[in-house]
Design brief:
single chain; 278 residues; alpha/beta; eight-stranded mixed β-sheet
Length: 278
């Protein structure tokens, strides 16, 4: 995709997104509640570290039913970071679930992906208790969190372990994800961060035409991490090759890897609203 269509898509999406925000559609002036420290893994045999990290927070309107939900995974290179509810997703008439997961070096792949899948599966089981609809669950995240969102949504085996079909996800919204095998997973194998690998731990490996609708957002190609825009451009192109009907790539001009998440949040809101309409 060249820069011009990406910018046009961005401007159109921002306009639609801010329209939703200014009208307060679905949210009105209602109150919101934050339920914290909910475990998404239970049972005997869990380590103390797993009990500590395998928790999530649910931010939801006090009133409402059958609302859309965004499951949000934090970034941090699979080595650091903690869950939080992004400010741009608050008071939008949607439920937001922010989940932690275990981190390198205390664990290695595929534990990160297994935890992310367990968190999403928990949402499918529990979200009706928090005003959410199981047919309106979106999975998103920034950087490493975007990588996890893409892996859980594209490689169907991870959610399949929990009896959930990944195609039940209403949409995937990875922000600046690795499309190749994540650099921390490559590091675990002694591979440098400038040597690309595409294997079963690469979202690119699992591109398919029947995947949920997907919105890929990156920072400026000249300011992103090592080839991150180009990874996502190829990622997007392969969705086209597979005949996927609803894959979009947006490049946020002027934003680097760290700063691109905040201006991308209105795009998430617009995408969720558009794909949640009856």
């Amino acid at each position: 995709m060249n820069a011009r269509p990406a910018i046009a898509t961005l401007l159109a999406a921002l306009g639609m997104g801010f329209g939703f925000i200014s009208r307060g559609q679905d949210s009105g002036a209602g109150a919101y509640r934050l339920e914290k420290n909910l475990p998404y893994r239970n049972g005997p045999g869990l380590s103390e570290y797993a009990r500590e990290r395998c928790q999530l927070d649910v931010y939801h309107p006090v009133a409402g039913t059958n609302l859309a939900t965004v499951v949000w995974f934090h970034g941090g290179g699979l080595t650091e970071g903690n869950r939080s509810i992004p400010a741009g997703l608050k008071e939008q008439g949607i439920v937001v679930v922010a989940a932690n997961y275990r981190l390198h070096p205390k664990v290695q792949a595929p534990v990160y992906i297994e935890d992310a899948a367990a968190a999403v599966a928990w949402v499918f089981r529990q979200i009706p208790n928090y005003a959410g609809a199981t047919n309106r669950i979106f999975v998103s995240g920034h950087s490493a969190g975007g990588y996890l969102a893409a892996m859980v949504g594209l490689d169907r085996r991870w959610l399949g372990h929990h009896g959930v079909d990944a195609n039940q996800i209403a949409g995937l919204i990875p922000l600046s994800p690795q499309a190749i095998t994540h650099f921390t997973i490559r590091k675990e194998r002694g591979i440098g961060d400038k040597q690309p690998v595409i294997d079963a731990f690469a979202p690119l490996f699992h591109v398919r035409g029947d995947a949920p609708p997907i919105l890929l957002v990156t920072g400026d190609r000249e300011r992103e991490l090592l080839g991150r825009y180009e990874e996502n451009a190829y990622f997007w192109r392969m969705f086209q090759v597979h005949g996927h009907p609803d894959a979009t790539l947006v490049e946020l001009k002027g934003s680097d890897h760290g700063s691109m998440a905040e201006p991308a949040l209105p795009l998430i809101v617009e995408f969720v609203k558009r794909h949640s309409r009856p």
